[in-house]
Design brief:
Order of helices and strands: EEHEHEEHHHHHEEEEHHEHE
Structural class: alpha+beta
Number of helices: 10
Mean pLDDT: 88
Distance between the termini: 31 Å
Helix content: 40-55%
Low-confidence stretches: none
């Protein structure tokens, strides 16, 4: 799991991420100082086939960082978390409608429901009044059996809203700040105001969706605790996807060759050993 800064209010987002860079080997000296001197070079076609995409670098004035968008997304997220069970899609739509009416009436002024309630106790009264009003409508329909039509319609709308919300969440997992203080994994050194845009990052983001959570909640809990996903989520490649294994010292070639021969890896010892190269000798 990777945690990174989000511009809005210096908050952070967490995602299960594997990062790649689109930098030529002979232009990667600064990058190597941050991340180390060993590289696996894979084809871009492999990345595209595995849904690995360039990130979108943003600053405080970028679309998607405006306070109103963040507020909308946060409130939608809270409504979603109250209704994770697929059987609650009807209720998801009802709660969404309630929040929409609260916003139209000037109550939702903050980036979260709890903040808006804390700022205005009348919001709790509004929620209660809405529930009573909505139940009256359902009771009126129940006599004719049309309450079941309302259930069907609201369930459908809830499914579509959830699809849209998930798509926005997935898309925003591919955002990264343009410039920020950065702690080097290789040295532990903090680089102030590093231009992250220079990394030309591509990333793979894995999502555990509602269906996964319902099938095995313990798997989700373990992933959060361990900060990595189960093996079935791993990215895999074969010899045709591998361009090179880059190292810096000739003395490392024998050690790496021996390791590949003696251990089970994704590499084929009969094909891939010739792809072990020194950074200085790789020109692609």
């Amino acid at each position: 799991m990777w945690e990174e800064k989000v511009i809005f209010r210096d908050s952070a987002q967490q995602n299960f991420v594997i990062c790649f860079c689109d930098i030529l080997a002979d232009q990667a000296n600064y990058h190597r100082k941050c991340y180390g001197d060993i590289a696996i070079v894979l084809t871009k076609d492999w990345g595209i086939r595995n849904n690995i995409s360039p990130v979108r670098y943003v600053h405080k004035s970028s679309v998607g960082q405006f306070p109103e968008y963040i507020k909308i997304k946060n409130i939608n997220r809270e409504v979603r978390e109250l209704n994770l069970d697929p059987k609650d899609r009807y209720r998801y739509t009802v709660d969404y409608l309630c929040m929409g009416l609260a916003k139209d009436n000037g109550y939702m002024k903050y980036p979260s429901i709890s903040q808006s309630i804390a700022a205005n106790a009348a919001l709790d009264d509004f929620f209660e009044a809405f529930e009573n009003e909505f139940e009256d409508v359902v009771d009126d329909l129940r006599g004719s059996g049309k309450d079941k039509l309302l259930l069907k319609y609201f369930t459908c709308i809830g499914n579509r809203l959830l699809e849209l919300h998930n798509e926005l969440e997935n898309r925003d997992a591919f955002m990264r700040v343009y410039q920020d203080d950065f702690k080097s994994p290789a040295t532990g050194e903090t680089i102030n105001d590093k231009v992250l845009y220079d990394e030309r990052e591509w990333r793979s983001v894995k999502f555990i969706g509602d269906s996964d959570f319902q099938k095995d909640p313990s798997e989700y809990t373990s992933a959060i605790k361990n900060r990595y996903l189960p093996e079935r989520f791993n990215l895999k490649f074969n010899s045709s996807d591998l361009k090179a294994l880059l190292i810096t010292e000739k003395s490392q070639i024998d050690d790496l060759t021996s390791f590949i021969k003696l251990n089970k890896t994704l590499l084929d010892p009969t094909i891939d050993l010739v792809k072990i190269k020194l950074f200085d000798d790789f020109k692609e």
